[in-house]
Each structure stands twice: as structure tokens, then as C-alpha cells.
Amino acid sequence: MTTYADIFSKKERVEDMEIYAGSGAVNEQLARYGVKFGIYKNNEFKEQLFPFDMIPRIIDKDEFTYLEKGLKQRVVALNCFINDIYGNKHIVRDGIIPEEFIYAGSGYLPQCDGIKPPKGIYAHIAGIDLVQAKDGDWYVLEDNLRIPSGASYPMIARMISRRSSPDLFTGKHVEDNRNYAAMLRRTMDHVNVGGHTVILTPGRYNAAYFEHSYLAEKTGAHLASGHELIVENDHLYFIDYSGRKERVGAVYRRISDEYLDPMTFRKDSVIGIPHIFDIYRKGNVALINAPGNGVADDKGIYYFVPKMVKYYLGEEPILQNAPTYLPYYKEDMKYVLENFDKLVLKDVAEAGGYGVVFGSKMSSEEKVNFKEMLKSEPRRFIAQEVIDFLDIDIMEKCELLPRKADLRAFVLMGDEPMVWKSGLTRFSRNPDSFIVNSSQGGGFKDTWVLSQ
């Protein structure tokens, strides 16, 4: 494991190092660029900055090679699983996964049954959340296959850091992360069925609107909202500023499944495109990521991913899950109830750090109530051992402080699986918290992957 202290000389560290002195300036520039995220709270939309810490997370070449191999394996297996579930459902018929875990999950969409997307790819962009334990081992915490966000933050932070500290990267042998846009464009072009590529946004009040616009700029795709796209004669068209219609062959959609097409899903959706699902079913447009992917990133399904790797690929999984228990199984329920104080409980339908509770932090009454809920709704929760994350230093008020951090790695599926040699490192700003999500007040770092 490599740290910043290993690649910066003593003279460059802490007080004297330009990276620390430039931290405030970089955050000011990020604010100017509108690098924010939005959250809805108490029925109000609020935008806030995503705080950036300039001490990078550093991953050496050999360690990233190991992660890269495991990430490709995992995402290929997940694509096989989605293809199977909306196809022949062999993994259910063979008893590897109970059918209740498929059909009772909110991510399963019966409307997608029998649909084969262009080139057979479902999860074009996967965000895999990992943590590194203090013993150096890596664990997958979560698979994000619907609309994973976050790649734009390290992209623009690296760009501004280069500008504010020109000598920062000299001689450090850091992989260039500016190729994400090219990787994304390659992924989109691979499945494009003919015509323009658009990034479909619900608009500026979406939590990740900055990313939508930034990726559109960097990839050369059109940034469009639902009212700028129309289905006619079994094809999708983009309406430009002059009213001219131009055919669209691929849509990188940044809106949730249920709002995508009011004719198929939620009838009250005003941000979707009527009948887009009909032409997607016919193969006349590619949707990136495919609708229905939520069947594979349900926290309950997460338990079975190592089994998927063995089942579909005939290989041993390279990356391990965090030790996880399913109260659905009697033996796991028994273990969870007996070891409640040592576990973290997660609601499978929640995201963004919500629905996560630590058994040790509950009152006696809360524990009794939660255990009763667990017994009545065993499919609703998973339980995991609490991994003691590796602490990563952040700079706060000119002082180095250890904080918990995770890594969101990005895997893109084009003509081959590709892992971006960078990633979004998120950290908790609360010294007593393991929850790093931006919606919970976390910050982010650049991730340096070393080339030698």
C-alpha cells in the first residue's frame, strides 16, 4: 500500500507542500464551476458544495492491476445475471438464487422481460463501491448498476489541481484520468444503433446535474431533457434550437427507470419520453444503462454475486463481498439476532447512506423493535460485519486527521470491459462515522493510480 508520504519528499509534506496550500483555492474554483450536488430535504431542494481534500488516495500499480481484474470479472458476471433474469432465468431454476429475491425486489421490472438490448449489454457503466480494511484487503460494499454518478468530480478536481499547482504531478508517475470521456464515448458509440448520442437529464434541479452537463461537454454528446426528444415512426429524434429533428441512436439516460416513459411506467412523469420504451424493445435505440438493472444491485442480491461469478464464468471470485448475512435464511437470522451488536444492518431498498444502522448504537428499546421488524420482514434487510476501514488522512485547519473512506471504481462495458484508472474516493468528515456519502456530509479526494 502506497501513501502520499511515500511519493512526496519530506520537504514537500504538510506545511510546505503546495498541494495543501492550494486546497482552498481549488475548492473556490470548484464552486465557480458549479461543482455541487443537490439534496431534497423537508420537501425543499438545496444545493451544496462537495468538499474536496487535496491529499490524494494513492493506489500502486500492482494493487490496481488486482482490482482491475476483479472488477472486470464482477461486472461481466452481473451482466450475465441481468441477461439471464430477463431471459431464461436459469440461475433461479437451478436454485442458486431464491425466486423471492428476484421478483420481490423493487429493481425487477417485468416490462423488461424478454428484451435484449443492443450488443447484449445491460450495465454499460458500473460504479462499484469498495473499502480497504486495515489489513490491506479490499471488499466490495455495493454494486451500482442503475445510474451511478461521481466520475466527473475527480475529473474536474484533477484538472483544477494541475492548474493551481503545476508541478504537483511532476515525477510522480500518476495515470492520467482525462481519458474517462473517451472511454465513455467509446462505450456509447459501441451500442449506438444509428444517429446522435444524447445525455438525458431531468434538469438542473437534479442532484447530479453538474455531472450531466460536464460529461456532455467532454464527450460531445447532446445534453437534452425529455421535451427535446420525440418518438416518431419507431425512431427517436432530437429537436434542435431551430426545430429541426435529428435521429438519436443512443441515450445515456440520467433519470430513474420509473420516470423514463409515462406510457410504460409512471403515468405522472413529465421528464420522460413517451413511447421510448416501445422503440427500445424493438432495438431502435440504445438505453444506457438498460432499464431493469436494479434487479442486480439490490442489496439482497449483492449477497449472491460471488455465486454468480462461479455459476456464469466458472471462476473463483477475485474480489470478496464484506461478510454478509441474509435474515431470509434461518441460520443467518439466528446469527444476526445473537450477534446483533457486532453488525451493521442495511435496508435493501435504501441508497445514499440512508437506511444504515449499527446494532451497537441502538438503545435497548430500539434493538427490541428492530429485531421484531427483522423477523417480520426478513427480505427487507441484510446484515454485515463492521469492517474496520483503513483510515486515510485529510487536511483540516492545517492538521492531518484520519478519516474513513471508500472508493467508487468505474467499469465501462463497450467492445470490452474497461476499468478507469482513477475513481471517486469519498471520506467521512465525521471522525465517528463510517458513512461517506455526499448526501450525509462527506467529502471527496482524487484517486492517484500509479503507472510504475
- State the separation between the terminal residues, measured CA to CA: 13 Å
Taking pLDDT < 50 over at least 5 consecutive residues as the criterion, the unreliable ranges are 10-16
How many structural domains can be distinguished in the coordinates? 2
Radius of gyration: 22 Å
Which structural category do the helix and sheet elements fall into? alpha+beta
Number of strands: 21
Helices, by number, come to 15
Mean pLDDT: 90
Shape: globular
Q: State which percent range the strand residues make up.
A: 25-35%
Helicity level, as a percent range? 25-40%
Major pleated sheet: 9 strands, mixed
Give an account of the 3D structure.
The structure is a single chain. This protein is of the alpha+beta class. It contains 15 helices and 21 strands. The chain folds into two domains: about 5-195 and about 285-315 and about 390-450, no CATH class; about 325-385, Dna Ligase, domain 1, CATH 3.30.1490.270. The protein has helices at about 5, 20, 25-30, 60-85, 90-95, 100-105, 150-165, 180-190, 210-220, 275-280, 295, 300, 305-315, 330-340, 365-375, and strands spanning about 35-40, 45-50, 50-60, 125-130, 140-145, 195-200, 220-225, 230, 235-240, 245-255, 285-290, 320, 325, 345, 355-360, 380-385, 390-395, 400-415, 415-420, 425, 445-450. Strands 3, 4, 5, 12, 17, 18, 19, 20 and 21 form a nine-stranded mixed sheet that branches. Strands 6, 7, 8, 9, 10 and 11 form a six-stranded mixed sheet that branches. Strand 10 (about 245-255), helix 10 (about 275-280) and strand 11 (about 285-290) form a beta-alpha-beta unit. Helix 3 (about 25-30) crosses helix 7 and helix 4 crosses helix 13. It is globular and about 60 Å long. Residues about 10-15 have low confidence and may be disordered. Pfam families: CP_ATPgrasp_2. InterPro entries: ATP-dep_Glu-Cys_Ligase-2 (IPR051680), CP_ATPgrasp_2 (IPR025841), UCP005522 (IPR016450).
